[in-house]
From TrEMBL, chains A, B:
Main location: cytoplasm
Binding site for substrate: 94, 104, 132, 217
Domain of life: Bacteria
Record-given protein name: 3-isopropylmalate dehydrogenase
Native source species: Luteimonas cucumeris
Lineage: Bacteria, Pseudomonadati, Pseudomonadota, Gammaproteobacteria, Lysobacterales
C-alpha cells in the first residue's frame, strides 16, 4: 500500500514518527508492505516553498491509498497580516480529496478516567463517534474584508448534508443504531435545511436507525451531563470542530484521540485531533497515542485490515493499562513520546 | 421604575412569576416602587396576534427602565415550514433595543458543586463572566434558501467588535483584570477582524488589563480543564451561545444562571440562560433561581440598586445552603418552583 506521510508543524513530526514506527511494526508482524512517502504541508511547506499545500504533496495524496498527517500551524505563521496560513494547506487538502466525513471516536479508557475533568461515574461506558462534516459550511464559504467590516458565508447544499448524514447512519447501523443530529435550527437557515434533510434521509433510507435532533447549545451541555446516551453524533463543520474538542475532555486528554476523514473512495486522511502544540514542540513529551490510534483507523478504513487495526488498539490499551502516560495524564512519572511509543511497539511485536 | 415583564413560553411564565414575587419583596423591604407591565412575546404572542414581537410589546420595552424575560420557543411553533418563530421575537427585541453585550456570570455555589458533571476540585473558586456579542454575527446576517441550498452570512464591523470588547475590558477592571477573547482566527475572516480589533482596543484603551486570545475549539476544552483561570471571556454571538451553555455545567445546572443584556443606555434585558423547557412546563418543578438572579442583575445594572441586588443574591445563596434544590440538582427531596421561591422570599423579607 502507498501511504503518504505529512508530518506538518510543531509536535506533528514527533507524533508522526511514532505513528510511522507503529505502522512499520504492523507491517513486519503481519507481512504487509507499506510504501511510505513523506511530504511537506502547513507551515513547514510555507517555509520550504511558500505554499502550505505544494503541488507535489497534493499529487502524492491523490495517488495514495491513505494519508497520515501530524498537525499544522503555529505562531510563526499566524501574523495577522500573513497572506498564507498553514491551516489553508490542511483545509485545501481535505477539500481536494473530497473528505467530507470526519470521524472522531471518543471511548474513554478506564486507566485515564482519573485524568478527565468529568466525574468518572458519568464516563464509564461512554462510546460515541462524532461525524463532522468537513468540506462545507463556514470554513469554505466566501470571505470578504473591506476596511470597516468582514464576513464569512456559511452554505450547505442538500447533497452535502445527505451524504454526511448517510455516512453517520451507516456507521450507526454497525453500532447502537442511534444518531443525534446537531444544528441551530431555531436561528440558522443552513440548520433548517440540515434538519429537514437529516430527517428525510433517516426516515426514507434508515428506518432501523433512531434519529434525534439537538440544538448545538443544548448539546454542549448534554455531552457533559449524559455522555453515555450518545452513539453517533452528526453535525456541520464548525459545530463539529467545537463539540469534538469539548468531547475530548471525556477521554481525559485530546492527545489520546484519533480521527479519520473519509469521502466516497477508500482513501482517507488520518490525523490526531490535537493541534501542533508549539509550546511543547521539540521537547520529546508529546503524547503520540492520538497519532498511533489514527494508524489503527487507517488500517481499518483505507486498507481493510481490521485485525491489524485491532492489534494496534490493543497495544495502546495495554500501554495505558500499564500506567504509561504522557505528562498531561500522569500523576507520578510522565513518560515521553519515545517511551510511550516503545511500550506500544513491544505489545505489537 | 417601569419594568416590563415578558413571561414568554414553556416554563417562562412559571419562573417569571417567581422573579416578580422576588422583585415585589425587594420593593417592599427597601421601599421602592416598581411598576410592572406584562406583555406577550414569542410563541404566546404568535398565538395571541401572529407576531412574536408585537408592536405594543416593543413600544413598552422602549419606554421601560428594564425588561425581565422568561424564555421563548417550543415544539408547537417549530414546524420546519413555520413562517414565524418565537425566537425571532427575542432576537428582534435584542436588536431593536441595541443590547449588544450579553453578560453571563458563572460562579458555582458550594452547595451545588456535587451536582456538576465536573470534578469538584476543579470548580472551587471558579468565578467567570462570559460577555457574548448579542446583536451581530451569523444570527443577524442575510439568510437565503433556494430549493437545493441554504446560506447564512456572518458579518462583523469594527464598531461592533470595539464596543463589546470595551464592555468586557471595563468589566475586567472591576474584577481580576484578565480578558480572554475567543475566536476562530485560523479559519474565519470575521475572527481575524475580531482579533485585530480586540488587540488594539485592549492595548490602546486598557493597558492595565491583560488580554489573551483563544481559539473556540481549544476554549471548549480549557473551560473544562482549567475553569478557574478565566475571569472575563468575550466572544461573538454564536460562539458565546455554545460556550455559555457548556460553562453552565460548571455551576451544576443551567437553571441556576442569570443573564443581563446591555447596550449603551442603562436599560437592559434580563433573562435566565435556560430555555422554555417544554417537557417540564406547567408541572411546577422548574428551577426559578436563574430568573431570580436575573432580577439581581436588573437591580444592579439598570436600577443602580447594588445593595438590593446583593440582598437577592444572598437570599438565593442561603436557600442553596439550606439544601433546597430543584429536581435536576436534588439528591433527596426535590423542591418545586413555589417552595424554592418561598424560601428565597423568606430570606428577603
Ligand atoms: C487547524 C484547524 C484548521 C482545524 C479545523 O478547525 O478544522 C483543527 O482545529 C481541526 O479540528 O482539525
Ligand atoms: C432562543 C435562542 C434564539 C437563544 C439564542 O441562541 O441566542 C438562546 O439559546 C439564548 O442563548 O438566549
Amino acid at each position: 500500500a502507498e501511504i503518504v506521510v505529512l508530518p506538518g508543524d510543531g509536535i506533528g513530526p514527533e507524533v508522526t514518527a511514532a505513528a510511522v514506527a507503529v505502522l512499520r511494526a504492523v507491517g513486519q508482524r503481519y507481512r504487509h508492505h507499506f510504501n511510505l512517502h513523506e511530504h511537506a504541508i502547513g507551515g513547514a511547506a510555507i517555509d520550504a516553498c511558500g505554499d502550505p499545500l505544494p503541488e507535489k504533496t497534493l499529487a502524492a495524496c491523490h495517488y495514495a491509498d491513505a494519508v497520515l498527517l501530524g498537525a499544522v500551524g503555529g505562531p510563526k505563521w499566524s501574523d495577522p497580516g500573513a497572506k498564507v496560513r498553514p491551516e489553508q494547506g490542511l483545509l485545501a487538502l481535505r477539500k481536494a480529496m473530497g473528505l467530507y466525513a470526519n470521524l472522531r471516536p471518543v471511548q474513554p479508557h478506564p486507566a485515564t478516567l482519573g485524568a478527565a475533568p468529568i466525574k468518572p461515574h458519568l464516563l464509564s461506558g461512554v462510546d460515541l463517534v462524532v461525524v463532522r462534516e468537513l468540506t462545507g459550511g463556514i470554513y469554505f464559504g466566501d470571505k470578504t474584508r473591506d476596511g470597516g467590516s468582514a464576513s464569512d458565508v456559511c452554505r450547505y447544499s442538500v447533497g452535502e448534508v445527505e451524504r454526511v448524514v448517510r455516512r453517520a447512519c451507516e456507521l450507526a447501523r454497525e453500532r447502537r443504531r442511534h444518531v443525534t443530529s446537531v444544528d441551530k435550527a431555531n436561528v440558522l437557515e443552513t440548520s433548517r435545511l440540515w434538519r429537514e434533510v437529516a430527517t428525510r434521509v433517516a426516515r426514507d433510507e434508515f428506518p432501523d436507525v433512531t434519529l434525534e435532533h439537538q440544538l448545538v447549545d443544548s448539546m454542549a451541555m448534554h455531552l457533559l451531563s449524559r455522555p453515555r446516551s450518545f452513539d453517533v453524533i452528526v453535525t456541520e463543520n464548525m459545530f463539529g470542530d467545537i463539540l469534538t474538542d469539548e468531547a475530548s475532555m471525556l477521554a481525559g486528554s485530546m492527545g489520546l484521540l484519533p480521527s479519520a476523514s473519509l469521502g466516497d473512495e477508500r482513501v482517507g486522511l488520518y490525523e490526531p485531533i490535537h493541534g501542533s502544540a508549539p509550546d511543547i514542540a521539540g521537547r520529546g513529551i508529546a503524547n503520540p497515542i492520538g497519532a498511533i490510534l489514527s494508524v489503527a483507523m487507517l488500517l481499518r478504513h483505507s486498507l481493510g485490515l481490521a485485525m491489524e487495526a485491532g492489534c494496534v488498539e490493543q497495544a495502546v490499551s495495554a500501554t495505558l493499562d500499564d500506567g504509561i502516560f504522557s505528562a498531561e495524564l500522569a500523576h507520578g512519572h510522565a513518560a515521553g513520546t519515545r517511551e510511550i511509543t516503545a511500550a506500544v511497539l513491544e505489545h505489537i511485536a
